[in-house]
Amino acid sequence: MIAETVCSAVAAAGLGIAAVTAYRKRFLAATRIAAYSLVPLGLVMTGVVEWLADTAFSPTAWAGFGVLGVAWVLFASSRAVERRRGGTRKERKETKAGAPREAVAPAASAPSLGAGSRQSTRPATPPRAEASEDFSDIEAILKKHGI
Fold first, then answer.
1. Residue 101 in contact with residue 112, Cβ under 8 Å?
2. What span, in angstroms and rounded, lies between the C-alpha atoms of 115 and 83?
3. Quick check: 14 and 36 in contact, CB under 8 A?
4. 106 to 74, 88, 110, 129: CA distances (angstroms)
5. Distance (Å, whole) CA 1 – CA 6
6. DSSP string spanning 60-128?
7. What is the CB-side half-sphere exposure of residue 85 using CA atoms within 13 A?
8. C-beta separation of 43 from 7 below 8 A
9. 135-146: per-residue pLDDT in tens?
10. Distance (Å, rounded) from C-alpha 124 to C-alpha 85?
11. Do the beta carbons of residue 33 and residue 18 sit within 8 Å?
C-alpha cells in the first residue's frame, strides 16, 4: 500500500514538473518528463508494484532465487569442467576406443598432415632483383628531398 502511494505521488510530482516545463515553452522536454512520470502510475495500475512488493518481502521467493543461483553455478561449473576435459562423454569414449582422428588446422578444409605427395610448382623463393635496382628508387627519393 505504501509503494502504491509513493508511486502515485512521484507521478503527480512529475506531471507538475512537466507542466512547469511546458509553461517555460520547452514542450519536448515537458513531454519527455510527463512520459517518465506516468511510468510508476502505470506500474501501480497494472499490479506490477504489488507483485514486486510481495516478492521482495517473501522469504520463499528469496529462497527460490537462491536455488536458481545454485543451479546456475552448478551448470556453469559442469560446462567449464567439460571444456577442460576435452568434450562430452561420447567424444571421450570415441577417443579411447581408438577412433582415428586426423590432425586438422582450425580453418583448414583438408587434413594438414598427409602423405605429402604434391609438389610445389613454383620455386621456394621468388627471384630477387639486383640490390642496385632496389636502392636506385631510394636514392632518387633522397636526392629529390635534398638529402
1. no
2. 32
3. yes
4. 30, 19, 10, 37
5. 9
6. HHHHHHHHHHHHHHHHHHHHHHHHHHTS-HHHHHHHHTT-------TT-SS-SS----PPPSS-SSPPP
7. 14
8. yes
9. 888 888 888 988
10. 41
11. yes
Pair 19, 65: CB distance under 8 Å = no
Do residues 40 and 10 touch, judged by C-beta distance below 8 A?
Answer: yes
Q: What is the pLDDT of residues 126-135, one digit of tens each?
A: 555 555 567 8
| Interatomic CA distance for residues 132 and 139, integer angstroms | 10
d(CA 82, CA 38): 49
Distances (CA, A) of 78 to 64, 66, 67, 72, 83: 21, 18, 17, 10, 9
- The Cα–Cα gap between 37 and 28 comes to 14
Amino acid at 73: V
Stated pTM of the model: 0.43
